[in-house]
């Protein structure tokens, strides 16, 4: 902080979130829905900014605020690209993430404020598997925002498990569970009074489901995600 995370949040969600240049201007997490490039959506949380050498007792005091970070499927680490201390600031954020048990969560680094750097333009950097690692943008001007939305879409497409599930007429509880997970992309009635469901879940939710409902996963035939979208 202040790297511009609230300004970025406002730009992504078109929400009137405070973006004041002061410590702890954001205390309570603000939640907004963001529509992605492929028509899917996600819930974005704007959380408290981290500061250098944050004492352990202060981390404990902000535990409820930082809980959104620990429970996230993806972290967007906003970095002031114009700051001469950005490498030290990144290290400080990594330290706090370690303190709250969030260091292993997947994340995309967003290098903000390229409008203050005449030599820099919007761009996205990927790893060898084509997963987005860093997005360079300006929350102030909007340059690179579409690149970030595409990177988010790409991340969640690559971290999704799709399948076709066949349920019998006695499997109403399992069908209700999948609807509760918002996992149903298409549903067809099968002969005998059952259902055939096209299902799509974030891999993290799928792994939880495997542990809770092994019988359901046994009926799960994996299919390509794009077959649901193109059909």
Strand content: 25-35%
How far the N terminus sits from the C terminus, by CA atoms, comes to: 44 Å
Largest sheet: 4 strands, mixed
How many DSSP E strands? 10
How is the secondary structure organized here?
Elements: H1 5-13, E1 30-35, E2 41-46, H2 56-61, H3 63-70, E3 75-80, H4 86-99, E4 107-112, E5 123-126, E6 132-136, H5 145-158, E7 160-167, H6 172-180, E8 184-189, E9 195-202, H7 203-212, H8 214-217, E10 220-222, H9 225-230
Parallel strand pairs: 3-4, 4-6
Antiparallel strand pairs: 1-2, 5-6, 7-9, 7-10, 8-9
Give a quick precis of the structure:
By secondary structure, this protein is of the alpha+beta class. The protein has helices at 5-13, 56-61, 63-70, 86-99, 145-158, 172-180, 203-212, 214-217, 225-230, and strands at residues 30-35, 41-46, 75-80, 107-112, 123-126, 132-136, 160-167, 184-189, 195-202, 220-222. It has 9 helices and 10 strands.
Overview of the structural elements:
The chain is an alpha+beta fold and 231 residues long. The strands form 3 sheets. The protein has a 4-stranded mixed beta sheet with strand order 3-4-6-5, with helices on both faces. Strands 8-9-7-10 form a 4-stranded antiparallel beta sheet. Strand 1 and strand 2 form a beta hairpin. The longest helix has 14 residues.
């Amino acid at each position: 902080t202040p790297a511009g995370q609230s300004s970025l949040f406002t730009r992504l969600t078109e929400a009137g979130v405070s973006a004041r240049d002061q410590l702890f201007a954001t205390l309570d997490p603000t939640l907004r829905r963001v529509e992605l490039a492929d028509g899917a959506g996600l819930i974005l949380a704007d959380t408290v900014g981290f500061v250098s050498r944050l004492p352990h007792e202060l981390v404990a005091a902000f535990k409820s605020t930082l809980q959104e970070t620990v429970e996230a499927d993806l972290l967007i680490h906003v970095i002031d690209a114009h700051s001469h201390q950005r490498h030290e600031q990144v290290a400080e954020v990594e330290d706090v993430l370690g303190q709250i048990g969030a260091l292993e969560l997947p994340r995309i680094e967003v290098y903000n404020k390229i409008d203050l750097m005449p030599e820099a333009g919007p761009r996205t950097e990927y790893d060898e598997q084509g997963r987005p690692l860093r997005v360079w943008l300006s929350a102030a001007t909007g340059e690179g925002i579409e690149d970030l939305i595409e990177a988010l879409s790409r991340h969640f497409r690559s971290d999704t498990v799709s399948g076709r599930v066949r349920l019998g007429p006695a499997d109403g509880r399992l069908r209700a569970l999948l609807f509760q997970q918002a996992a149903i992309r298409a549903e067809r009635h099968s002969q005998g009074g059952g259902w055939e469901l096209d299902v799509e879940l974030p891999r993290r939710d799928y792994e939880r489901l495997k542990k809770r409902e092994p019988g359901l996963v046994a009926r799960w035939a994996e299919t390509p995600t794009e077959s649901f979208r193109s059909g």
